[in-house]
Write a structure and sequence with these properties.
The chain is of the alpha/beta class. The protein has two domains: 170 residues, Peroxisomal Thiolase, Chain A, domain 1 (3-Layer(aba) Sandwich); 143 residues, Peroxisomal Thiolase, Chain A, domain 1, CATH 3.40.47.10. The chain is built from nine helices and 13 strands. The structure holds acetyl coenzyme *A.
């Protein structure tokens, strides 16, 4: 059976780091409020001349280096973003050109903060079905471009960045002992579209718009749906919470992450946390966390890693893989 195994990880964070006090200069907020309600201490913002594709290319290069591969060995790029440089072409094709790749195919996936999980599931499908042997999966965002800087309930939460993984086909026997992606679980419910949305776009206002969120409602859905999808994916893989070595959650809010870990009966020592340093980087948050944890030497071959995320749509899902 064809399995999609992680061969390399990489990430890129823009140079500019902004701490919580930055917001207290112009808004009625404080470092104490932001830390205690979200766990966020700082985030990175892209420079004016940096676009999502620039961040994505840097992360992609790092992941290829880490995998010991050249760009021309890659068959496909699947890139998750909600903050593309242009309405079209896709950021993925810009990355393809930026890496000097002249073969294969590239496309974007848009599932907001669940985007990387959706992209991984797509890449897994491409590898399993034999359409690709090596896939670069990227999450890249510049959410600083869609903030309402007068809204203290949203602008303090988000940051910019990019992360990438290289997946390669490997033979497995179809059991949960295989290395690679073991199961995926994807969900959306468009009835909740107004809870978290951007109030502009080509088909409505003709402008990019800014992010709007009913934070407390999103919070409640997140806690309920994230543990649920993780359990379903584990079940599909024939595993349960006891088998999990690492949970790599979407880094939106420390309280959501802790509540999800608690529902999954996982100690916080098994949870990868980057939210304090990155804030919420939407589709980039999971590959950023994977890459940072990989650099820290956290993952050992054979470890069971669960990635889960939720975002606008609402869309949510999870991936279970063996490192
Ligand atoms: N500083 C100070 N006060 C604030 C701030 C701030 N930055 N933001 C909101 N408040 C105030 C509100 O105005 C409100 O004041 P009021 O009572 O006078 O009206 C009060 O704090 C409580 O507001 P709530 O929204 O109920 O606060 P809550 O405890 O829920 O925390 C937060 C808000 C942090 C946004 C929380 O709801 C949350 O994290 N929700 C999930 C958001 C999220 O993670 N979204 C992303 C997930 S999906 C994705 O990643 C795209």
């Amino acid at each position: 059976m064809r399995r999609a195994v992680v061969r390399g990880t990489g990430h890129y964070l823009p140079e500019r780091v902004v701490d919580n006090d930055f917001f207290a200069q112009t808004l009625d907020t404080s470092d104490e409020w932001i830390r205690s309600r979200t766990g966020i201490e700082r985030r990175h913002f892209a420079a004016d001349d940096q676009r999502t594709s620039d961040l994505a290319i840097a992360a992609a290069r790092a992941a290829l280096d880490n995998a010991g591969m050249q760009a021309d060995q890659i068959d496909a790029i699947v890139l998750a973003t909600s903050t593309p440089d242009f309405t079209f072409p896709s950021v993925a094709t810009m990355v393809q050109a930026g890496l000097g790749m002249t073969r294969g195919f590239a496309f974007d996936v848009q599932a907001v903060c669940a985007g990387f999980v959706f992209a991984l599931a797509n890449a897994d499908g491409l590898i399993r079905s034999g359409q690709a042997d090596r896939v670069l999966v990227i999450g890249a965002e510049t959410f600083s471009r869609i903030m309402d800087w007068t809204d203290r309930g949203t602008c303090v939460l988000f940051g910019d960045g990019a992360g990438a993984v290289v997946l390669e086909v490997a033979d497995g026997d179809g059991s949960s002992d295989d290395r690679g992606i073991l199961s995926t679980d994807l969900n959306s419910d468009g009835r909740y579209k107004d809870l978290l949305h951007v109030d502009g776009g080509v088909g409505s206002t003709g402008t990019a718009g800014v992010l709007r969120m009913q934070g407390n409602l999103v919070f409640r859905h997140a806690v309920e749906k994230l543990a649920d999808t993780a359990h379903r994916a584990l079940d599909k893989a024939g595993l349960d919470s006891d088998d999990v070595d690492w949970l790599v959650p979407h880094q939106a809010n420390l309280r959501i992450i802790s509540a999800t870990a608690q529902k999954m009966q996982l100690p916080m020592e098994k949870v990868v946390l980057t939210v304090a340093d990155h804030g919420n980087t939407s589709a980039a948050s999971i590959p950023l966390a994977l890459s940072v944890a990989d650099r820290q030497g956290k993952f050992q071959e054979g470890d069971v890693v669960v990635a889960e995320g939720i975002g606008g749509g609402l869309s949510w899902g999870s991936v279970v893989l063996r490192w």
